[in-house]
Amino acid sequence: MNSKWIAYFFFAASVVLTLTAAAKIYTAVGSVGILSISDPVTFVPYRHLMWAVSALEAIVAACLISNRYAVWARALALFWLSSNFILYRFAAEFLNVKLCPCLGTLASELAIRQELADHVLTGCVLFWFLGSLWILSQFLDGKAAVIVETPAEVGKFG
Question: What predicted TM-score, i.e. pTM, was given to this entire model?
């Protein structure tokens, strides 16, 4: 297994997850109208959903860059989170729900088209899903070699 690729994969995922968690928190503390209604997929008020999902994203992001957890555990955490995001997207599509405030209201405030933000984040989720699945498959097949623990250690394997 290419340890540099895995370290950068986890680092990049943690950066994106941290940014999306921050965007959700920014929205959750605001007074936007969407916060007073419930999500049609989970039936949870958007304000509560924003807090809960941002906490999960932050926890997984911290796990990904921590050397306290084995690589397979980090891959499993990312696989679990990306699987949930994919299942949510499928449920939203099935229910014909077009509202997915992945970045909260921050995208519109930064003059980013919501559709573009959704496509970019969907691409990230699919990449995380496939990448973490590949890492897990290497462990299940017994092909896992010595794997770098954190991005800071990548240079040691140069």
Answer: 0.82
Domain that holds residue 63: 3-151
User: At residue 157, does pLDDT exceed 50?
Assistant: no
> Quick one: DSSP state of residue 58?
H
Asked if 59 and 8 count as a contact pair (C-beta separation under 8 A), the reply is no
Q: Of 107, 158, 119, 141, nearest to 3 (Cα)?
A: 158
Mean pLDDT of the 25-54 span: 89
- Residue 158 covered by a domain: no
Please indicate, yes or no, if residue 157 is contained in any of the structural domains: no
Q: Sign of the C-alpha dihedral, residues 120, 60, 67, 131?
A: negative
* CA separation, residue 39 to residues 2, 23, 76, 141 (Å): 40, 18, 27, 40
Q: Is the pLDDT of residue 146 over 50?
A: no
Kindly report the number of other CB atoms within 10 A of residue 21's CB atom. Answer: 20
Structurally, how many domains does the chain consist of? Answer: 1
Round to whole Å and give the CA distance between 26 and 106.
Answer: 7
